[in-house]
């Protein structure tokens, strides 16, 4: 009976049909029926028998009300029979509710019973309807002729019918009946209180179901009178406390009456405390109390109310796990956690939601509880990072998403949350199914919403996952997709959205990764922009350190690309902020320490490698002291990072930090020469190498780093044990890679460097055969010039091994072209030193051929120049070996292939590709794509290595590994495409250098003299009439040339400077320099010009009076390009070069051939010209001669277009050049000897640079007269590349260019122009083909007037045919 009563109480409390309809209900009723066997023939019942009969009657009445019409007839018959038996045998046990039901369903009311049907589903207890509570022990008196009781029964019957039908229009009749019963029942009669309670319930039903607002105060009054008349201790008092509390709660809902809410809470609390544990009121009062406390908490925000609400419901569910009550409890517990955020409340909420799900909820509530539980467990995982919570959260989200699609449930949000959690589990356990499922869920979540903001958030999560795990998915394709996904999210997400900083941080980081992996350096600047914006928008101090660290890392990489010191300085400042924002214990402090230490290493490398840009203010010793401070700070920072890594980092991060710390030690050693720092680096790298498995893919990198450290220590101390270990680890690094691996070239280069170093040390240690003392090397290993003594036995090595190793390094096609070319040049030098000239020539040839890949034509001009700058004098060294082997034609070819690379490529390679595009655009596109990708993967120049080391100390990362594989693939693609192109008819020589027979065509109108300067030997190669004549120049040496060139340039700057110091000391200094200029011309005559002209014989002898001298083209190399070879003359008088030939210059034989093949327009004199003049330039001296020069041009040309002053902008000049036959520019010019591509003309609004003109023209022009300083001067850097304004104008289409090697006189140039144009003049206009002879005539005129001032006339030069 206890089990059955509990079931009926549960139904009465919740009105959930399952309590009376499930099979267990009838099973529990069966033994109760057995108690009643034999009672049918008796006149009375025992107490327990009456109780059993009452419970069974209630069960069948409840089932009748709950079953659908047509299925409830059997229960109605049973209910009526049991109630009639109870009324006959124990009438005192029949409550009014059962009596009303009996009267309504006796045979006289059969019609109504047939139409009753199922009563509407009662609202849950939490909705505070009160319900109908069985009260077997508290029913009113027996039925009979008592008029009030009969009125009461009629009223109850009416309301029972209303509950079944949902039609509450009979409530007015029930109200009238109860009011009559009350009127006829005097105060003090116990039944009156039952009538009052029933009237209160009728009024409440009128308010709830009929909308009668005035019924609510009447309900309150009735329940209040009933309660006030019920003494303490009365068993009905808890029910009446509950009833009044309920209707006062309704009053609060109706009118916002806070006083009513407070009283309702007090009454419901009293009811909960007064009710016995087995009373239905005990449960429902706590449920409704919790709900009212929740409402007051929401209104006032007092945590105590929410705590009381949760406690009340916790007490309820501790006794009986009613599903609805447990769900309500779980809901409030969850809200309390959201409000408090405490771990204890989080645990309570999780337990409550789990209990609710275990209790068996409706479909709707189960879905809500699962979603809530998933969020709570996910939050606990974020806080505590336990595997159990992670697994539970994933399962909860999966179950919630797999459930019914409830209204308002965001299924995409569930997928998103589960996807993020699966990604977190993949990060922990690396199970592939988690990663793939995470990707699927995140994609589905993003596709499952049309709201732009929400889609942006979900795309942000998808993009972050793809960018983080691209290497474990589809590699580069996945990383590119991550970039695209995050870019779309950036477009969709509003600028003020709180998630935007996270999105920008992830996008910037992805762009950086893509730069490294795919070799797309143009993405670095957009990455910096995104990360700067992310930092600026980051309000959370917890996230700021990581954002700053990411920005600093990208700035470092941008510096590596641009070599802009300001960017590196900004990176260091940003990273200092990152470390300062992450105090000890912060999870991102380690990363900030690592990145800041790395940035300080970069800046230190600049000083160690003598690559720090000079600012004119910082002395070298100050820069070195600052670098030492940087190195010491880096060591301290990285030591702290290493300590943190031991506790909280993955093994790969620990290795990365240790390698960076080792680099710091090495840099510090380079600056302080403290052997202890070097020892620390070696020890650290040994530990890393020993802890790395032999099968680890990065093992060759670790071995390389250790070998490099040992190499530095060996150079410093010459210890035999270091030599042995160094060779061992370098050889192991080589052995760890396949023969065609791209990074094998790096490892082979290192091994060769070690062999060479040991061989030099062995030579030093060997006794000199003459003196008996130790030998010596040509270059000491120590910068002080002191060669350390060898300690211990050195391993036996031979330089031939180094040559073989480097030859193998150069042959690996997939390796970076820069490293391959370096290996080839190095082994050529070693072979030449060893006397193996054929091998040396092979090496030099290989290096020169690789220049085409080192600086491919698709690169930026500055990048190409920087890369070629790493091979100074390469062509000269190669030609010197070819000459020594008596192969002069090969020497010419090598000089042609290895010099003027940029000029030739800009014209020929562009023309070749244009022809290919016209013939086979598909092949042209494939070749361009493969080469562009290779460009991006090849290393860029910059301070990335320790001084004296052949490769960077910190070898590649995982990204580098992927890049190596990509480089190998691209190299094969390029080779296959080139082979396919060269099989096309007419393309067999595509991108191949021409043979000597083709080059010799340059000398069709006179000899071309290539003056080769190299350390081995210096020679002139006279190309004339299809052959080459070698003229040895024994008095010309490379060392003396460099000294004289430096002195000459310094003197010229002093002599030609305007507005110099007028003092006597300065005057004497200028005079001393002025005297050196003729001395330099004399030296050039003796060591170069005279031997060459004499070798040419009569063709270059002094001409007869009135006879124009023969033409000759000079093509000097190296530093000789900076000197006026054309004006060489003996100091004591007598004919010089200007007296014996009409000189011109050419950058290369191919440049001369191109210029000569261009249309001349000889048949029609030129009648128009463009004049560009800048008489005034802000910040520079005025040029009054500009007007005079324009007047000269106008005298000889009838159609002159003038761009003068403000009209002479760079864009206007560039726009006017096409279609112009003759251009005359009079303005200031400047050459940057360190960066010749930045040579410029000062025009209105800005400069016109060499690089602005560095592209082939679509049309051909005749003559450019560059009346400006430095216009045909090259650079001290890249002297063989002919990066001058003159060659730029020739590339832009002008056959002839006249310019100046240095600063020229404004006044004197006007007169020179008069003589020049007079010599160019022909009837009807000008003949530009006379340019060389006209300039020769004009210069000789000035020389005749000012023979002792060569600085005023020797600087003018002609370029062209």
Automatic annotation (TrEMBL):
State the organism named in the record: Micromonospora sediminimaris
Name this polypeptide is given: CHAT domain-containing protein
Which Pfam families does the record match to this protein? CHAT
Give start-end positions of Low complexity composition bias: 116-132
The segment(s) forming the CHAT domain are 1079-1360
Q: Which domain of life is it from?
A: Bacteria
Q: Check the record and name the InterPro entries matching this protein.
A: CHAT_dom, TPR-like_helical_dom_sf
* Stretch list, region Disordered: 108-146
